[in-house]
Amino acid sequence: MKQQKKIVTIGGGIAGTEVSSILAGLGYEVTMLEKTNQTGGKLNQWNHLFPNGRDAGDITDFLRQKIAMQTFRVLKTTSVGGVTRRNGLFEINTNTGEALEANAVVISTGFDLFDATRKEEYGYSIYENVITSADLEEILRRGHPLATSRGTKPRRVAFIHCVGSRDEKSGHHHCSRVCCVTGVKQAIETAKQLPDAEIFCFYMDLRMFGLSYESLYREAQEKYNIQFIRGRLSEASENQDESLLIKAEDTLSGRPLKMNVDLMVLLVGMIPGKETSRMAELFGLEREPNGFLRIADPHLDRNRSSVKGVFLAGTCTGPMTVDETLEHARSAAIDIHHDLQGMNS
Amino acid sequence: MKHQAKARIWADYQKQIPDDRFYYLRSCIRQNLFPGSEQAFLRILRNELGKAIFDDPAHTTCAGIAYHSDLLPFETLQTIAARQFALMTGAGYQHAAVSCVTSFGIYSEILETWKEFPEEEAKARELLWKATGREFEVPKSVVHCSDIIYHFKDRIAARQKYFLRNRETGKPLNLVEHIGCHYSKMFPGKGVGGAEFSCVLSGMVEAWGGHVVDYPERRHCCGFGFRQYLIMANRGYPVSNSRKKFESMEPYRPDAIICNCPGCTMFLDKWQYVIGEMEGKTYGPERSGIPVLTYEELAGLVLGYDPWDLGLQMHQVDCEPLLQKMGVACDPSMKYKGVNGKNLGRPALPACFRVNKPEAASL
């Protein structure tokens, strides 16, 4: 049923696309703004998803098919330049000179990955054989073999959990949630590609909250012989042969630990996106101390912001898995529909 | 290693270093261990750079040794610092130039404490007034003296007489740097280039023609923890720390070690002899050690100062191999002569690294 009301979705990642397609299906006139020239967000750079190893492209393809149905308008390379509000309507001016009216706005601007260079002691971008989980995903997605900077097969690989998460020093106290299981998934993928390699995961806690995550963790140990060491890395240094000397404390045995590894993977966390912060400024949205957008109620109103008419979907509110992001987007669509129909008091 | 990537980190840790009018706060141990360093610093600032620096005989130790040994409470420590600041205020200076890394850490810690807990500053003012009747202004800046040399490294380079290059091969000399832990590990923002890839010493070495080797244990402490080395029974711990560093830097064949901390310079210099005696192990070529220099000594050498005026004869590890590589002119017969040709005496062992172990003797 055709609705008279208009909605603007800001951010064309998986949350933005999902919420837009559902609202369009309900008959609203939806315009989705995407600042890059590609929808799908950071999932475009991912290879396989936990816990079942599914191709990330399945999800982006699924969402692109919805876009292809042309039930809503997608403006790529378009971002919000300014916002005014008049008689309950939002007027959104874009960088391309368009002025869009909206009865409701969805913020789905997502997250940024923690910049691993900020953890200077780990030497990312300085040492030759330090990469991030995103880099590893890109290597795997392109089908490149895992190799050291000198082209040799890594014999020992270390995964470092909680890089930029739960970390006073980097200013991010929150848990990024998805990195634990991402580390387990990537360690298994590495073990499959390098069956002779020793693989270590250095962790603080392993938060295997999702269904079957714990099984994946057990499988990593039992089937792939991945060794989990409870201890945060203190520093890494580069050896003469460009391998890495890493230092940590094994907090279970209570002993300091030093080892050489050929490749080190930093599991970088999710932090509030720059675009999310900009939207908070433009719309006057409240933020949590960790910088993510504040939801109206942690139990009952998970999609409403502190400003009436502005709704939130996905990781602009905090770290989420892909499935949680899609669910959050769907609940946002229902909430907006109820709101525009006057069903929410 | 992508050395150029370090520049991005350095850009984040640019500290303000004043240009002139310094109040000098000396180290309490350097004048005994490396007697020419502080004098060379004053000479460089005054004679080479034309800067005003006040060397006040009324100032004292910062008492960091006692503080870090748990012999002195923080209240006393900050009152001693307050007295230094009062002397500085009275002399009309606002920029403290601190010779010692421990002292630099102490003053930084106190000033940061006063920012977070103003009541502590009030307490220090009250205690100082009661004890001495003095008042003070908080310094506009507190910098380590290595910051100042770093700040003027290019002006020193412009007057350079000797380069950190092997005179015979023309290749840059390989130097390893060791930054004192209290320089920037406590407050990364107070160190030039931060804590992890500090460039205060590497910047000097590169400006003067040398090559800096980044070896795996570069960041590791030399072991100069007061509570360890003050107790003889604990000294194995400091030695093992230094040994770890020597083992790590040895494959890179460094021509010299450069330090900015009194304790580190002493340990890295003297422990080489101790390890030689204990294990028969030396880290330089042909049973020699690796020369260890303070940054002032290095600056003095490149400016052409006489090595014996710089006090290099007081080092445990002979510095002659480095002098020869650089082509520094010096008179060996003057090595153990003091001011006015006064005989200083000679070390009991003429060659510090003539190790007494039988297996080493056969080398």
Task: Tell me what the structure shows.
The complex is a heterodimer of chains A (345) and B (363). With 345 residues, chain A is α/β, with parallel strands linked by helices. Chain A folds into 2 domains: 173 residues, FAD/NAD(P)-binding domain; 155 residues, FAD/NAD(P)-binding domain, CATH 3.50.50. Chain A contains 7 helices and 20 strands. In chain A, the strands form 6 sheets. Chain A has a 5-stranded parallel β-sheet, sandwiched between helices. Chain A has a 5-stranded parallel β-sheet with strand order 11-18-12-13-14. In chain A, β15 and β16 form a beta hairpin. The longest helix of chain A has 19 residues. Chain B is α/β, with parallel strands linked by helices and 363 residues long. Chain B has 2 domains: 129 residues, Glutathione S-transferase Yfyf (Class Pi), Chain A, domain 2 (Up-down Bundle), CATH 1.20.1050.140; 204 residues, Rossmann fold. Helices cover 43% and strands 8% of the residues of chain B. In chain B, strands 2-1-3-4 form a 4-stranded parallel β-sheet, sandwiched between helices. In chain B, strands 6-5-7-8 form a 4-stranded parallel β-sheet, with helices on both faces. Chain B starts with 5 loop residues before the first helix and ends with a helix. The C terminus of chain B is likely disordered. At the A-B interface, β15 of A face α1 of B.
CATH class of the largest domain in chain A: Alpha Beta
The greatest interface here is: A-B, 14 and 19 residues
CATH fold naming of the largest domain in chain A: FAD/NAD(P)-binding domain
**Integer count of domains of chain B:** 2
